[in-house]
Amino acid sequence: MRRLLRLPLRNLTAGALCGCGTAVDPFGDHADSCRDLQGFRGKRHDTVNNVCVFATARAAHLAPAIEPPKLNEDGNGRPADTLVQNGLEDVFGHRQVCYDVVGVGSSIEQYLVAACNDVGGAMEFGVKRKLRSTRQLEDDKVVVPMPFTSQGSLHANFSISYEQWAVHWATRGEGRSKDAQKALVQTWLAQASATVQKAQWKLTVQLVNRLGAVNARSGQLMKGLLPINLHDVEASKVLKVPS
């Protein structure tokens, strides 16, 4: 929550150095770009994909596939973190839908420039960057980027996709009215926001674990900063999704 409000994190000591040798800001933004944390940013990405896209699509009875290989011939061989082959024909025709999760770092220069030039610009930059990387996609597939920021914000594609999924969910049982669909979408969005913030908290913990502060008297590097308290993240509770 302190990151959302742009308040300094109590666990980041002034003058602390990351293990990579870079000075750390009091807001924990260094975790977005630290070369030593690349693998943990990947874990954050996987968490968001697993919970906010794959598991939610499965809750909507869409039978998604997670990270299907070799969907196209681009550099990485797969544009989709989660693939939905059937159930969304009213929206996308008979094309397979490739949902691609994109993490947008709050402190990365290109995202900051885009954000300053236009409200929501950082998110759109992330979308365009992802679409450029999957431009060789075949005609029977469509890419839907799902960007989120390290501040916990969700791109509009989350809300739009959830609304589409809720329509499909409503066809799988009686009594699933428009109001029920709307309530389900709000539940999914709350879960997604909480998941992003909790995943970011775990990344920030890894940053704190790599920090050291220089003792002003001895000049020696001090380790062992206090770990972040989970209670500092008020949005850490993940809501249950109706079946």
Please, could you describe this protein's structure?
The chain is of the alpha+beta class and 243 residues long. The protein has one domain (40-210). Helix content is 39%, strand content 11%. The chain is built from six helices and six strands; from the N terminus they run H-E-E-H-E-H-H-E-H-H-E-E. The strands form two sheets. The protein has a four-stranded mixed sheet with strand order 1-2-3-4. Strands 5-6 form a two-stranded antiparallel sheet. Helix 1 (38-59) runs antiparallel to helix 6.
Q: Top keywords for this entry?
A:
disordered C terminus, two-stranded antiparallel sheet, 243 residues, elongated, 6 strands, 11% strand, 6 helices, alpha+beta
SSE blueprint and pairings:
Layout: H1 38-59, E1 65-66, E2 82-84, H2 89-92, E3 96-104, H3 109-117, H4 121-133, E4 141-149, H5 156-170, H6 178-209, E5 213-214, E6 221-222
Parallel strand pairs: 3-4
Antiparallel strand pairs: 1-2, 2-3, 5-6
Helix pairs in contact: 1-6, 3-4, 5-6
Q: How many DSSP H or I helices?
A: 6
Structural class: alpha+beta
Work out the number of β strands: 6
Shape field? elongated
Q: Main beta sheet, described?
A: 4 strands, mixed
Strand order of the largest sheet: 1-2-3-4
How far apart the termini lie comes to 29 Å
Order of helices and strands: HEEHEHHEHHEE
Task: Give the low-pLDDT segments.
Answer: 111-116, 222-243
Radius of gyration: 20 Å
Relative helix content: 25-40%
- The proportion of strand residues reads 5-15%
How many independent structural domains?
Answer: 1
Mean pLDDT value? 75
